[in-house]
Amino acid sequence: MLAVQGRSEHTRLGAALIAVGLLVLLAAEVASAQRAHEVKPGQSFSAIAKRYGVDVWDLALENDLQPTSPLRVGQTLRVPPRGVTYVRPGQTLSHIARAHDCSVETLQRLNGLRSTDRVRAGSRIRLPGYEPLEAAAIERDWGPPQAPGWLKIDGRNASAEVEMVDANGKLRLKGVRALAAVMQRNEGGPAQSVHPRLALLLSRISDHFGGRPIRVISGFREAGGYTRESSRHVQGRAADIQVAGVPHRAVFEYCRSLVQTGCGYYPRSVFVHVDVREQAAQWVDWAEPGGRARYGTLERPYGRRERKRHDRRRVGRNVSRPDELPLVVEVLNKQNAVVRVADERPASEQVDEAVTDEHALDEQEGEIEPEEPAAPDVEPDAS
Fold it and tell me: What is d(CA 192, CA 184) in angstroms, rounded to the nearest whole number?
């Protein structure tokens, strides 16, 4: 009897140790999927890539850069998760399949590609065995920021670490102006203004993810090409961003939990689009970087028959944080006087001619199909 009892105790102990081991492995996988690196003096792409065991090209393209791009001390780089690669210039799916010992058909299935699709340089490709822990990342408590309201943000030509929101929840004018400088497309270009509500949105995003730095991939743009005059990038109301160490899907889901925001998720690209607007919108675009928009669900692009509006299932927006991004924000100017700035008027006060944003597709990188009336909805059973 004692021997049996001893064996059962050892069995329970062994099971407990195995469970602990599995939790440690899971935590390690989550951490590896969310790695970020801050550039130190003298570091190069090759040295950083070697440290994390990733390819130089994958590290560069994960950050929308080239291996020859200069690095700045303090710049935050996302480290690509295991199981993904990026298309190099001149590469095809056949090249990638041979390099990773798999078939072209497997890559097409994993990435929602048709046999006629061509991949573009810079596209993110999932490889066999890739299992992103997105669900865990979405539900994860990212912890409180060390300095709430302070935003560390990095752009193409500038970076800043500034108090954006004070202890009373009011925006600091100095922070809004610092963000405007970071969002400039070209160094030394004409000064542009960023809407205070976008500044508050970016601050809220950083705080929600534990005060992590934000990198602006695209901020201000000039009208022309695929960018319309009505684009929020032109108006200083939009930014394409990365949050250091945070999966893009988690950023997208947080954006969707707020009121009157535009949220764009690009599974094959390196950023999440966020903007402030009067009519909330969301979309998933499976296009290659710089390619024509190809909308779909969180799981796959729409098929040809599904592209018609009436073939899509519509779902409501899950606004679980209605108070984190008010429509009217208060800004403290140089004299510490409060200036109230409204994003747009409430729907009850609008008149027909005031509603200029009926389409959510103004913010897309790719070509916009003229028959597309609005951004596609995310299906309720997508994951």
Answer: 8
pLDDT for 304 = 64
Domain boundaries, the chain: 36-133, 150-363
State how far the Cα of 76 lies from the Cα of 35, in Å rounded to an integer: 10
Quick one: which H or E segment has residue 214? strand 214-218
Residue 122's identity, in one-letter code, is G
Number of DSSP helices (H) and strands (E) in the chain, helices first: 10, 14
Q: Which of 20, 272, 301 is nearest to 134 (CA)?
A: 272
Residue 335: predicted pLDDT? 77
Amino acid, res. 154: D
The residue with greater pLDDT, 250 or 16, is 250
For residue 132, what pLDDT is reported?
62
Given 3.10.350.10, 3.40.50.300, 3.40.50.720, 3.40.190.150, which CATH number is that of 36-133? 3.10.350.10
Give the span between the Cα atoms of 104 and 160, in whole angstroms: 44
Q: Are strands 261-265 and 281-284 parallel, antiparallel or unpaired?
A: parallel
Buried-exposed string 99-137: b where 16+ CB fall within 10 A, e elsewhere = eeeeebeebbebbbbeeebebeebbbbbbeeeebbbebb
Mean pLDDT in residue range 66-92: 89
Residues ≥6 apart with Cβ < 8 Å to 177: none
Torsion-angle region of 210 (φ positive above 0: left; ψ -120 to 50: alpha; else: beta):
left
Report whether pLDDT(9) > 90. no
- How far does CA 245 lie from the centroid of its chain? 11
> From CA 170, how far away is CA 203, in angstroms rounded?
12
Nearest to 254 by CA among 301, 210, 306, 318: 318
DSSP β-ladder status, 124-126 and 338-342 = unpaired
CA distance 272 to 311: 26
Q: What is the pLDDT of residue 293?
A: 83
CB 223 within 8 A of CB 280: no
Question: Is residue 338 within 8 Å of residue 331, measured between CB atoms?
Answer: yes
